Amino acid sequence: MDCKTTSRRLGAYLDGELPHAGAAAVEEHLRQCPRCTAELAELRALSHALNGLEGAAAPSGFAARVKQAALARQEVRRQPVMLYGAPRARAMNRVLMRVAACLVAVAGLWVGMSAGGSAFAGNGQASSDATQAAEQNEFDLQMASLSAAPPGSIAEAYLAFASYDETGGQGQ
Questions:
Q1: In Å, what is the CA distance from 146 to each residue of 134, 159, 164, 166, 169?
Q2: % of the chain surpassing 90 pLDDT
């Protein structure tokens, strides 16, 4: 056994906490190592000094107050946390929020279907022309935001491809 391992086990050896084989290994090392033997002597002297001290008396009622505080703290942990009211009210709020979200989604779909349906009502050619005009207007707005692109930039390359596609492969 080496000094480091023996040093870590000296306290347990002194208190009689090592199994027989462990205690025998420490004793074998102590017979050969004066440094660890000196460390054991220091630990024994410290132990005797500490055992000779009188213990401090706790104030009257100290144990009862500690126990009462521990029980009170334990009781606080058992109570449910009430951030937004009773747990049942919070559960109901979650259900209502989900129902409201579903209603908003359904209303959005209904509005979208209504708006889309009106574009296709009546003359098919008129709705197709209106759709193309809207798409052209959107394309023109996108191109206007990129028109001040510096030479050699990605925006300029995008404009070149977009204008090439717009003119049917003819370029501007």
A1: 19, 7, 15, 15, 20
A2: 24
For residue 32, give the nearest of 73, 77, 66, 1 by alpha carbon: 1
Same-domain status, 97 and 129: no
pLDDT tens digits along 125-144: 555 677 777 777 776 666 66
Q: Which residues span the domain enclosing 151?
A: 124-172
The two three-digit tokens of residue 126, written as one number: 């008129």
**DSSP 8-state symbol, 17:** -
Distance CA 117, CA 112 (A): 8
Beta-carbon neighbour count of residue 13 at 10 Å?
18
Amino acid at 35: R
Task: Name every residue whose Cβ is closer than 8 Å to that of residue 11 and which is 6 or more positions away in sequence.
Answer: 43
pLDDT tens string 156-171: 666 666 665 555 545 4
- How many folded domains does the chain comprise? 3
Q: Is the same domain home to 1 and 47?
A: yes
Q: Is residue 66 part of a domain?
A: no
Alpha helices in the chain (DSSP H): 3-14, 20-32, 34-51, 62-78, 87-120, 124-146, 154-166
Kindly report, residue by residue over 16-46, the tens digit of the pLDDT: 999 999 999 999 999 999 999 999 999 999 8
